[in-house]
Amino acid sequence: MMPDTKQKTTRWQRKLRENICTVEDLKKHLFLTPSEEKLLKNVGELFPISITRHYMSLIDKNDKRDPIRRLIVPSAEELDLGGSFDTSGEKKSTRAPGLQHKYKQTALILATNRCAAYCRFCFRKRLVGLSTEEILRRFNDAVRYVRAHKEITNVLISGGDPFMLPTTVIEEFLKTLSKIKHLSYIRFGSRTPVAFPDRILDDGSLTATLKKYSSKNKRIYVVTHFNHPREINEQSTEGVNRLIAAGVLLDNQTVLLKGVNDNPDVLAELMTKLVGIGVTPYYVFQCRPVTGVKNQFQVPLYSGHLKVEKAKKKLDGHGKRFKYVMSHDTGKIEIVGADTERLYFKYHQARAEKDIGRFFSKKLDKKAAWLDDLE
Hints:
about 375 residues, alpha/beta, TIM Barrel, 15 helices, 12 strands, about 30% helix
């Protein structure tokens, strides 16, 4: 069974009750025309709205094209339903509700469908904040699966955002998983340092728990999700500092997003600032062709490659450690090069073991934004 989630409401949970969750709430912070208001209400019926007070404070309210606004405030573009809700074949990889095993060494646990704030570019729009059958129901079933598959070296706990779970539940996960001998490390995918650092700053028991279980034998990683330099501020940096003090290692995954960070200067600044606060740039992901996301945020692959390479020229070795990849149904594919005729790729990970490391190319199409768009 899932660990018991009943406990006294904490300070950070009370703060979440102040989130901006309706168009009426939005109107108290941002100017909306009557037509915008109507359209955003339609969006909210499809994809939930939730913005923390902290993240709202980062928005330039006088700039309709502000990148932070674009990341978190709904827009009429989400009503464009081109694309797919499962672009990476997660259904194929599901072994039990909330448990995926796509790559040999990694088990993925979807521990919750809740986040502190709902990003407009989310690749799990099909389940985050909505009623779903895809979330973990019985933790013990996931543990039994991991124990039975000794090829699994690490577990990634994601969602939603697992740091939205009570600390007691997170401790139960760590207590149980840390006893599995063939696991080398445990990861949490969380955007709380970015969108809701109060989760870390207000709850010393979280960092105390992470410190208790993080050791050189069963290291804990937190994979953060900074997408723009302005997300790195005093509060988010302090959140990162406390995680580091707890012995946690931090990697960052960024998504290349049109109108947000698809500028070499912005991307380079983000990576430099990440290294400066002790977070390792890990991946820059090609935005997935998700329904409600594809036509709003995707950058063509050729253009994305050029922008990433220009950004890397501005970076030192630490800042350019990331790989530019797409999480495709067939695997995690690195975009490694381009010339006047072809785009070049390499399987960084793959569903089929024979594909791992395989180098291949496709005929260049400067408008294509996903592997399936190429000949």
